[in-house]
Specification:
With 639 residues, this protein is α+β, with helices and mostly antiparallel strands. 35% of the residues lie in helices and 16% in strands.
């Protein structure tokens, strides 16, 4: 909204009539408000040109254009928003002259060198500003003669001691300030919620409610930028659904720039989508579970028990988003793909089903519950969330967006790239894994478990794996190397078990390859161990079939340390270039080795699932042989 030149009378008349109508039968009014309601006018008589000239002579400055135009229509104003009860005309406006003694503290803070130029420009505000508030709830309205735009407008700064934000809020002109106060009036009007007066309906509310309807339709057609612009304006007037629709757009855009209102039990999305998202936010923030007031029966008597169950499920990683219909079936299918690491397949299933998604009510424009699902939320990369926003859904039509690309590179050689598993690393990541043919991921514990009956954990984030499996471990042995392995599918008829940042360093004398045990069922198994220590790369491969070790080799710092059996020609050190004199060359050789293994066996491992997702895990048998006669080892006990 803008106030065009000459529109002040229409704007102020409309505001006054809306204010008068909002009061209904409210009787506790001051005499001035009674007169204003009766006259349907919040202002006073217009200021004459002589009044304005006299004020400017008194103040020693010509007034900015929009304030001058306002004065020509009304020489002052009542109820400028919710917290300024009287606004100055030509007689009351005066230089503030730091009357409250706030300048010294504010100027010291604003003048700090690391502040932006915009913040530092406020220095001296309290001494130079023109004060326009006459009566208010400890709220100052200040015109800044030093903050002048190309149109000659002075910026307005509004400060209240009770607001959380310490800096004054800036408006580029007096006109912009008055528009914002008109909007603030709408968000605080007595009859806005049908209380203490008639239903708050007027031409402004009708126009903004119609804009919300248009915005929702645009959002469901995939035009989220258009929808956000309409909703941002409607939200300023406090219109129903505007904020929660904006919130959904912001969450999928990744901005979260509109703030988040507390969910309410009357909303049909309360239990199915809003509460799980709140619980996920609480979990990711690290705040204590006691902050979860939604499970307090004194506050939410009807939903407290369900809220407590949701919080527990989100905390334990067992929460599942379960929408209905065709989209719900797709969500279930996608989850099955994601839990075994195939995040690209999971996204392709979801992408195909998005047009069939149906909203739960007028305040719903996207399947937000996906963002709380522990298996599917990591699948939704920034690009994929935007694709959801851009995809027509909920019964609306429109052009389909360009599809977001797959995130998982083919094969294995991406593991040799700097920062492959840790983006902040400048060297290749440390890892070890075993690839097993003809075995499903959930069958790996039976072959490689640390003890009979080993079972898979629920899908876990990487940083939760150790805490889940070894919450009370106090004894550590240099020979007890039982990695905690994440499992998933590694391509057609292959599975993987993977450990990032191995808990033990590779030791040629002690390493006991688990490949024979993994291949006991008759298929093939391949172990790959890659680590860097003080810029010294090590690369190990061992392979078995039918329970028998077929070959193994280890390259350390470019030197072939050990070879067992007949190594395929594609994996011999000369063919790969492991004798390169520098670490970069040896890393390139490791990449070539991984490419060769990919070509030989058609295997791959999923980057997104390993770096950002959740996977089932288990404790493996030891990858280190027991100590031999006379060998010493270290055991550390922590009490």
């Amino acid at each position: 909204m803008e106030i065009q030149h000459g529109d002040w009378l229409n704007f102020l008349t409309q505001w006054s009539e809306e204010w008068a109508d909002s009061l209904g039968h409210v009787e506790e009014l001051s005499p001035d408000d009674v007169a204003a309601r009766r006259g349907r006018w919040l202002g006073t008589a217009p200021a004459t040109e002589a009044d304005i000239t006299e004020m400017e002579d008194r103040l020693g400055r010509a007034m900015p254009p929009s304030y001058r135009e306002f004065l020509r229509v009304s020489n002052g104003w009542s109820h400028a928003g919710a917290f300024v009860w009287k606004l100055a005309g030509t007689r009351e406006a005066h230089w503030h002259d730091d009357a409250m003694g706030l300048g010294e503290d504010f100027d010291e803070y604003w003048a700090e060198e690391d502040n932006s130029e915009e913040v530092r420009a406020q220095v001296g505000l309290w001494s130079r500003a023109l004060q326009l508030d006459v009566e208010s709830d400890m709220t100052f309205v200040l015109l800044d003669p030093q903050d002048v735009g190309p149109d000659g407008e002075w910026a307005v700064r509004v400060w209240a001691s009770w607001r959380a934000n310490g800096d004054p809020e800036r408006y580029p002109s007096f006109a912009a300030f008055m528009i914002a106060m008109h909007q603030e009036f709408h968000t605080h009007a007595p009859g806005r919620d049908g209380e203490d007066g008639p239903a708050f309906v007027n031409s402004t509310t009708r126009a903004q409610d119609a804009a919300v309807v248009r915005a929702r339709a645009a959002a469901l057609r995939g035009r989220h930028e258009e929808a956000a612009a309409l909703l941002a304006e409607a939200q300023k007037y406090g219109r129903p659904y505007a904020h929660e629709l904006l919130e959904q757009i912001a969450q999928l855009e990744g901005s979260r720039g509109y703030g988040v209102l507390p969910p309410h039990p009357d909303n049909p999305r309360f239990l199915s989508e809003q509460l799980p998202l709140k619980a996920a936010d609480l979990l990711n923030s690290g705040r204590p579970a006691e902050d979860w007031h939604y499970s307090d029966p004194k506050i939410f008597p009807d939903t407290a028990r369900a809220a407590a169950d949701i919080q527990r499920a989100v905390r334990e990683g067992t929460y599942r988003y379960r929408p209905g219909g065709v989209f719900g079936e797709a969500v279930h299918e996608a989850r099955e793909q994601a839990r075994w690491g195939d995040t690209d397949a999971a996204w392709q299933i979801l992408r195909a089903a998005i047009p069939s998604w149906e909203p739960l009510g007028p305040g719903h424009i996207a399947p937000m519950g996906l963002l709380a699902d522990p298996l599917l939320a990591p699948v939704l990369t920034v690009e994929r969330r935007l694709e959801i926003l851009r995809t027509p859904r909920g019964g609306e039509s429109g052009p389909a967006p360009a599809p977001a690309g797959d995130r998982n590179p083919d094969g294995l050689s991406w593991l040799a790239l700097p920062g492959a598993l840790r983006p902040w690393q400048t060297s290749a990541s440390d890892y070890r894994m075993i690839l097993v043919e003809g075995v499903a991921p959930d069958e790996l514990p039976a072959l490689l478990g640390s003890e009979p009956g080993t079972v898979l954990s629920p899908p876990l984030r990487q940083w939760d794996v150790t805490r889940h499996h070894r919450p009370d471990q106090h004894v550590f042995s240099s020979y007890d190397d039982k990695p905690l392995l994440s499992v998933g599918r590694a391509g057609p008829d292959w599975s993987f078990a993977f450990e990032q940042d191995p808990s033990a360093r590779f030791n040629t004398e002690r390493c006991l390859s688990p490949a024979p045990a993994a291949s006991a069922g008759g298929g093939r198994a391949i172990v790959i161990w890659h680590e860097w220590h003080q810029d010294t790369p090590l690369f190990h491969v061992s392979a078995a079939e039918g329970g028998t070790l077929r070959y193994a080799f280890t390259v350390s710092a470019g030197t072939l340390n050990a070879t067992v059996g007949d190594v395929p020609a594609e994996l011999t050190s000369p063919a790969l270039g492991f004798d390169a004199p520098d670490a970069d060359g040896q890393a390139a050789a490791a990449a070539r080795a991984l490419d060769a293994i990919t070509l030989l066996h058609g295997v791959t491992v999923p980057r997104l699932a390993l770096t950002e997702g959740r996977l089932h895990t288990f404790e493996s048998l030891s990858w280190s042989r027991p100590p031999g006669p006379g060998e010493t080892y270290v055991t550390i006990s922590i009490s």
